[in-house]
Design brief:
With about 220 residues, the protein is α+β, with helices and mostly antiparallel strands. The protein has five helices and 15 strands. The strands form three sheets. It has an eleven-stranded mixed sheet. Strands 10-13 form a two-stranded antiparallel ribbon. Strand 2 (about 40-45) and strand 3 (about 50-60) form a beta hairpin.
């Protein structure tokens, strides 16, 4: 299995010969990918065209990945992409970053699926930690040459998601109560009461979903 980059125009040229294919055990359960398997997804372009192709999301590199015949391509030149849908999950791109839409309302909630590779040692690229002997291995893992998607045995994938709300067109990252309340001037007391009564944990997606639904009623 290989992992290479491909431009969006080149990707569209090969869409016509894509098939989902059988999912092999070797292609499953990569901890650096968001979903346990590649699934047929839909890429909707701003031109109105759409294409179906097997997709998954690389949480470490923050890339959407296409699978074909045991090889992997990273979507590039994504400025022309409007929406990507995989297994009912909707992704949009803002300032070159992928965000999954969790609540689609006047006050919307998004999650950016971010992970890092960790081991004992100093911090290097992509947020990974490694001993000196392993640095070359990790750099090749997400390099520009075709490489295996397998994570080295001495590394683990640690999820560090970011949650954002969009209010009046403004994107606001939220990781605590203070940040959230700042986005809603004049509604702080009502939101404080809700957070206190419900024991809202700003690191739990389910709690944030409930909070954003409530915010839309104010």
């Amino acid at each position: 299995m290989f992992f290479v980059k491909i431009s969006l125009p080149m990707l569209l040229m090969i869409f016509s010969i894509f098939t989902a294919g059988a999912q092999t055990e070797a292609e499953k359960n990569h901890p650096n990918l968001l979903m346990p398997e590649f699934k047929d997804g839909i890429i909707k372009l701003k031109t109105g065209k759409s294409y179906s192709v097997p997709l998954n999301f690389d949480k470490v590199n923050q890339n959407m990945v296409v699978r074909k015949d045991g090889q992997y391509w990273v979507l590039e030149e994504i400025s022309g992409v409007d929406t990507i849908i995989v297994e009912g999950r909707r992704f949009i791109i803002d300032q070159g970053k992928y965000s999954e839409v969790i609540v689609n309302s006047p006050i919307s909630l998004f999650v950016r699926h971010i992970s890092k590779l960790e081991s004992v040692g100093s911090t290097i690229g992509y947020g990974a930690k490694t001993t000196t002997a392993s640095i070359t291995h990790v750099n090749k893992l997400y390099g520009t040459e075709p490489v295996s998607l397998e994570v080295p045995d001495n590394f683990r994938v640690v999820d560090t998601p970011e949650y954002l709300v969009r209010v009046n067109g403004n994107w606001i990252r939220i990781s605590n109560r203070k940040q959230f309340l700042k986005a809603f001037p004049g509604k702080e007391e009502q939101l404080k009461s809700f957070v206190t009564q419900n024991g809202t944990d700003f690191k739990k997606l389910e709690d944030l979903i409930n909070l954003v639904y409530y915010s839309n009623t104010l």
